[in-house]
Write a structure and sequence with these properties.
Shape: globular
Structural class: alpha/beta
Distance between the termini: 26 Å
Strand order of the largest sheet: 8-9-10-11-13-12
Radius of gyration: 23 Å
Number of strands: 24
């Protein structure tokens, strides 16, 4: 088989031991690592059609994989006014006013990344922005992507003038007189207004996705576990793959929502394994609750507002039944479970499914923001993967617990935030991700956050739960061997070894000795997917 790529003068990092391999060069053929050795021996494998790159001592790791992201919806949701840098209502108002001045009459305003902490102790509603959004249809997505603010004009165009009833845990938040405040909680409520807003063309959506994926590759990502298959997602992946323009290897888990009947579950099962050269459908994504910030999580005790008391599924036993069906069919699941009651129910459901036989199906829990001690050991006992997003803790909570998330939970539960360390110490397999577009996707930033647990915008601030920090090696493992384990691919991914995938990330220096605060700025020199460079820094 013809050698497609040769890397010379490399430091090859083993993410299991944290040590450099004795070899200094690598050859790839047919999308796999074909040989490891010294520069002279590996160079001899190259011919006129081989790409030969002298890395001049740069560090090669297995390709970094984001354990939880939303490529298509993220590319769509991050289009418009970026409000993620606003920390106060006045800043939001100023940003909106400037954007309104740029709009044509009747044009919709789209914003994203709005942090509810900007409202302080005031309700999250559109009232503070009524003056600047007078007559302007606007949708402002909150950072968690589970809620949004709709301006009065947007609600009017959608015909939303009071509360609604939904089949899932969603809400049009209304005041004491039954008038909408502008806050829409969860997908079903948000869709009431989203569906009347102008939509981008299919070509625009595909172009945004392609640009986002290229940027991810430039940041060092070679793969991602995509936690949705909404709309044209699968068609876009197929088209980009066939055109040779898919720069990430994607493992896609379509959603199973409350109300799914037997036919819908059979369709999800039948869809497994479909895909292309660089993407495939593998698993099912479910939701057990919403978010703590919105009061839609499922907690064992209500939050300080008396909220977060219910599951996303009106009857949680329906969820348990479907988990059992998917387990018997050999389908892995990934369940969004943020609150302690939600996480406990997922683990109970998996345990019940396993009682019927079969421990080979690899189930996951996504997020796990607060859990008590007795929950930790069950992850390892049941073989359930803990999928964590450390930058959520870094950027949306505070060490002094004055943020919205912490205040809602109270001191005891806020002190159990994102227990990455405790889960690992309890024997759980931990995979790290960004949940983009909820948080930025650059993997070095995710790994850094797992280590320092400080706000990325101000690293001088104290860490939230420093006792839950991971080591540099553990953070790297969370995006290499951990991601491979979560996908059941440890036999072919996550390490630099002959026969493994030639998915590689090349960094200017050792990520294990680079300080956590400096890690996000470490240059990514080369990204290789399936033996082909998808990003190459100038001068390399």
């Amino acid at each position: 088989m013809r050698t497609s790529l040769v890397l010379l003068s490399a430091r090859l990092l083993d993410p299991v031991t944290g040590a450099f391999l004795p070899e200094t060069a690598l050859a790839a053929a047919g999308g796999r690592i074909a040989a490891l050795g010294d520069d002279r021996a590996i160079r001899a494998l190259a011919d006129s059609g081989t790409t030969v790159i002298d890395l001049k001592g740069a560090v090669v790791t297995p390709g970094l994989v984001d354990g939880h992201l939303h490529p298509v919806s993220g590319a769509e949701l991050t289009h418009g006014l970026d409000l993620s840098g606003c920390t106060e209502v006045d800043q939001v108002r100023t940003a909106l006013a400037a954007e309104v001045r740029r709009l044509a009459p009747g044009q919709w305003l789209h914003g994203w990344g709005l942090d509810p902490n900007a409202f302080g102790d005031r309700p999250v509603e559109t009232a503070p922005f009524d003056a600047v959004l007078d007559g302007v249809p606007a949708l402002l997505l909150l950072f968690d992507a589970h809620s949004m603010l709709a301006s009065r004009r947007a609600l009017e165009l959608a015909g939303v003038d009071g509360p609604r009833t939904f089949e899932q845990a969603s809400e049009v938040v209304c005041d004491a007189d039954g008038r909408p405040t502008g806050l829409l909680l969860e997908d079903a409520a948000c869709e009431l207004v989203e569906r009347v807003a102008p939509q981008p063309t299919r070509e625009e959506r595909r172009a945004r996705l392609a640009a986002a994926l290229r940027a991810m590759a430039a940041a060092g990502l070679t793969g991602g576990h995509a936690m949705d298959a909404n709309g044209d997602s699968l068609a876009f992946y197929a088209e980009l793959d066939e055109a040779g323009e898919l720069p990430l290897r994607l493992r896609v888990a379509p959603w199973c929502q409350p109300g799914a009947d037997a036919e819908a579950v059979r369709a999800l099962i039948g869809q497994q394994g479909t895909g292309g050269r660089l993407w495939r459908t593998d698993g099912v994504k479910l939701f057990m609750d919403g978010t703590i910030d919105n009061g839609t999580a499922w907690l064992e005790r209500p939050d300080c507002h008396g909220e977060s008391t219910h599951a996303f599924w009106p009857d949680p036993e329906d969820y348990t039944r479907i988990i059992g069906e998917l387990h018997r069919a050999g389908v892995p699941t990934a369940t969004h479970a943020i609150g302690d009651a939600a996480v406990r129910h997922v683990l109970d459901s998996v345990e019940k499914a396993q009682a019927g036989g079969g421990r080979g199906v690899r189930h996951r829990v996504e997020h796990i923001e607060t859990v008590p001690d007795d929950t930790l050991r069950r992850f390892a006992e049941l073989g359930v993967v803990a999928s964590m997003q450390p930058t959520h803790c870094c950027d949306f909570t505070r060490a002094d617990h004055t943020d919205n998330w912490s205040r809602r939970l109270g001191e005891e539960r806020a002190s159990r935030a994102w227990r990455c360390r405790d889960l690992r110490d309890a024997g759980a397999a931990v995979v790290l991700g960004s949940d983009w577009p909820i948080a930025p996707y650059p993997p070095l930033g995710v790994m850094a956050g797992a280590r320092h647990r400080r706000p990325s915008r101000d690293l001088t601030q104290p860490p939230h739960g420093p006792d839950q920090a991971l080591t540099a090696l553990e953070a790297l493992q969370g995006m290499t061997v951990g991601a491979a384990h979560a996908a059941g691919e440890e036999h072919e991914a996550g390490r630099i070894a002959v026969g493994h995938r030639a998915d590689l990330t090349v960094l200017a220096d050792d990520p294990l000795t680079t300080t956590a605060t400096d890690l996000p700025g470490l240059p990514v020199l080369l990204t290789v997917l399936d033996g082909t460079p998808t990003h190459r820094a100038p001068g390399l």
